[in-house]
Structures are given as C-alpha cells and as structure tokens.
Amino acid sequence: MSKHAVFLIGLLIILIVVSVTQDSAIKSPNSSSPELIELTPLSESRFPNQLQSLVDRLSQAALDNHWATASDLVEQLERTWENMKPTDSTTLGIVQEVDRIIETLHYNVWGRDSTGVLNSSRKLTALFADLS
Fold this sequence. Notes:
This protein has helices at residues 3-27, 42-45, 49-63, 67-84, 92-110, 114-131. By secondary structure, it is mainly alpha-helical. α4 packs antiparallel against α5 (92-110).
C-alpha cells in the first residue's frame, strides 16, 4: 500500500473513533459531567412560613402592647418580604397588595392601633396562603 492510502485509512479510523466517542458521550455522559437538576428556589422553600411567623409574632406584640417589639417586627417583615417576594407577573396584584398592607402595618404600629395590626395581619395571612 502506498503512504497515501495508509494515511487515508488512518485518518478514517481516527474520524470513526472520534465520532463514536462523541455519540456515546452525548448519549451517556460520564460521572464527572455536571448533572442538571431542578431546585426549588430558597424563597419558595421557606415561603410563606417565615413571613407568617413574623406576622404572628407582630400580632402578639400588638396584643401585648409591646410597641417597640412590634415596630422591630414590622421592619423585619418588610425586609424579609423584599428578599422573598415573587417576581413573576402572575402574582403582581398580590405582591402589590402585600406591599400596601405592610405599609399600613407601619402606620398601625406607629399609631399603637392593635385592632388595625390584627386586621392587617389577617389580610396578610390570606395573601400569603394565596402565594403558597
């Protein structure tokens, strides 16, 4: 055989090996390849339990007339909500309503209005249930 024929046969063998190797890698990736898995975002996994816990504690503070604690809890509720609130357009109305009620809670606490705090807390509980 000529050098040219040997070269072509060698090249053909290399192409076949590379092609087979690529096909098998695509069909069955090795264990060192990263595996894609779907994870639940952190905000959803804790949602709405952490928020509801803050609302419950806030309500109790208002009932006990512990307004400094209630004020701290409203601030914490607002920060937690900002970090956890959904961003998809399907929940936009609920998100805006929660934002409004948290603002109302600030006024309820500043005015030491325990009935207002309880009413706002009840509304938040219902909205959090809608988001879960």
